[in-house]
Structure formats: structure tokens, C-alpha cells
Amino acid sequence: MKLAAVDIGSNAIRLQITNVTHYEGMVNFKKLEYLRFPLRLGKDVFHDQKISEKNRRKFLKLMKAFKLLIDLYEVDDFMVVATSAMRESLNGKEIVEEVRQDVGLKIHVIDGNREAELINLALWNFIDDKSYLHIDVGGGSTELNIYLKKVKVASRSFKIGSVRSLDDDKTPATVWKSMNKFITDHISKKDLITCIGTGGNINKIFEMSKPSKTKRYLDIAKIKEIQLYLESFSYEDRVNKLNLNPDRADVIIPASRIYLAAMIAAESKKMIVPDVGLKDGLMNVLYERNKSKKP
């Protein structure tokens, strides 16, 4: 069985095609194709409230390319979702309809809570009876989820994101205060909180930390160290000396500030970085609705 997931984010758009097989009672997910295209829809929307005509044309071409790959791989089922940039865009609904008619892809524009739910589906293997704060930082929003003894006790989406924060951080102070209050209201001082970080930026920070092969976690001190290291370079040097992608080199610092702010509010010293995201949650949904079908 072949499944495909498309994640239309504020900073980039991703396609993953996965082959699912069954062998001796085990279910195996093997990635066949993964593409990430840096079409920053959030830059348009968070400045001008709409997607520009130039990026609209690019987006339509990209959806056609993704649909061709989905067809070429003979995918059995797929799902396409869009997050904060598309849902906040004044011409978002119009573009979604254009893609449906011209390309044959139905785009589901989801809210922050649904986005968090989908990501959470991919996190269960990392959650046990301890206390966790899940932090997912995207281009336009940050989703927070709190787990106590394997039960999600609170969840909320905030308009704080790496792309949204680029120009001298346009995020109002009230939003930051609201995020901190959400954390402190739902976490007891007696709880020892471990954070779980998802998103492309925390994965890059983890990669830069030169981790051991067996442990996928970061101490808060290491995140601060890497943040200071990144801040010591100009944007051009982050691209040319550190070899970061241009669409990563500018957002990684504001993203690190969001992760650190949440960790500090939770008084957490450790973050697990499982390298899962929205696309993995979509794969779970697709598998569940197709697993009863014959191969």
C-alpha cells in the first residue's frame, strides 16, 4: 500500500510518499520519496494578508508537480493539508478552489488544534507516564500540548512562528505572555517536565549539536549555546560558512527563541527531538483508514 502526505506550511511545502508493508505481524513504513520546496507563503500573508500573484503561480505549479508524482507512484490514498499561512490568507479559499479544479487535489485547511492533534499521532512512541510539554514551532504558529501520565491535559495554538517573527519580531508581547501563562497554569511546580520539540528548526539545532547515535535529546544549555553560536554569524555567513539553506538561515534563530521561552516557562532542562512532524501524523491517519483494505 502506498500513501502520500502533503504539508503546506508557512515556510516550506513538503511531500512524502510512503510504502506500507506487512510482514510476520509487523507493519513497516518505508519512505519512497520526500521533497521539500521552500515556497514561503507566510512571508506574503503575515505582511500583506494575502498570497502574492507570483507565489500563487508557483504554488499552482508545485501542486501540479506533486500530483504528477502521486500519480506516477500509483498512490492508493493521499491527504493534503495547509496550516496558518493558507488559513489566514484573504485569497486562501480562492487558491484552494483553483487547485481543486485545475489540479485535482483537495486541500484541507486545518486550524492549530487539528494540526497539533495530527502531530501528536506520531508522538505516542515517545510518551510514557512522565510529564511532557510538546512544542511544535512552525512558520506562522506554535502548538503546545501538555501530557501528564499519558493523558493530554491541555492543548493550544499561538500566533508565534519563525517566519512571523522575522521583521523585528512583530508578535505582540501579549501573545508571548499568553503562551507563558498557558504553560504555568497547566504545569505544577512539582512536576519534572521533559519537553518534546518538533519542527525543522529544532531538528537542525539537534543536528548541529553533534549528538550521539543513541540519544535524541538536547539539554537546554546546549540549545542556548547553539543559539548564541548562530547569532555570532551574519545571515550570509550562516548560509555560506555554516551551509544552512537560505530559508533556514534566517528563521532558525527566532525559532530557537520560541523553544527556549517555552522550556524556561516550564522550568524544563531537557528536550527530546524525535524527528517527526505533521506529515507523519497524516501517514497515521491514512494508514488507519486504509488498513482494512486488501493489498
Can you put this structure into words, describing what you see?
The chain is an alpha/beta fold. The protein has two domains: 122 residues, ATPase, nucleotide binding domain (Nucleotidyltransferase, domain 5, 2-Layer Sandwich), CATH 3.30.420; 154 residues, 2-Layer Sandwich (Nucleotidyltransferase, domain 5), CATH 3.30.420. Helices cover 43% and strands 25% of the residues. The protein is built from twelve helices and eleven strands. Helix 7 packs across helix 11 and helix 8 runs antiparallel to helix 11. The longest helix has 20 residues. It is globular. The N and C termini lie close together (6 Å). GO terms for molecular function: pyrophosphatase activity.
List the helices and strands and how they pair.
Elements lengths: L1 E7 L4 E11 L2 E12 L3 H8 L4 H20 L4 E6 L1 H5 L3 H11 L4 E3 L2 H10 L9 E7 L4 E7 L2 E8 L14 H14 L6 E6 L1 H9 L8 E3 H12 L3 H6 L5 H4 L2 H15 L3 E3 L5 H13 L5
Helix pairs in contact: 5-12, 6-11, 7-11, 8-11
InterPro entries: ATPase_NBD, GppA/Ppx_hydrolase, Ppx_GppA_N
Pfam families: Ppx-GppA
Organism: Rhodonellum psychrophilum GCM71 = DSM 17998
